[in-house]
């Protein structure tokens, strides 16, 4: 059973536009967390929507540019790079919170998104 964002991406076929939209949604959610007093639940739900759209739009693009006999390797490399980035960012985020606090952490995330 397909999820709603996946259906939207597949129907429109504009993966790059959806990646851009997901970045804007994520930027908005981190901005809400950093600079407003709005309930964090709203920002976290918005961030979940942004990440869902990103995954639905970004991962299928690999199949558009890589030949079929190299597709498994391409997905493996993509997963490895993603996991390496997640591991490094989590360590950096912990150090930033310990040294500077949560507002600086959100600015750090905003910088990466931009």
TrEMBL record:
InterPro entries: MFS_trans_sf, MFSD1. It comes from the Eukaryota. Keywords: Lysosome, Membrane, Transmembrane, Transmembrane helix, Transport. Its main location: membrane. The keyword Transport applies. The chain crosses the membrane at residues 16-35, 41-66, 86-113. It is a multi-pass membrane protein. One of its GO terms (cellular component) is lysosomal membrane. The keyword Membrane applies. It is found in: Lysosome membrane. Belongs to the major facilitator superfamily. This is Major facilitator superfamily (MFS) profile domain-containing protein. It comes from Oppiella nova. The lineage of its organism: Eukaryota, Metazoa, Ecdysozoa, Arthropoda, Chelicerata.
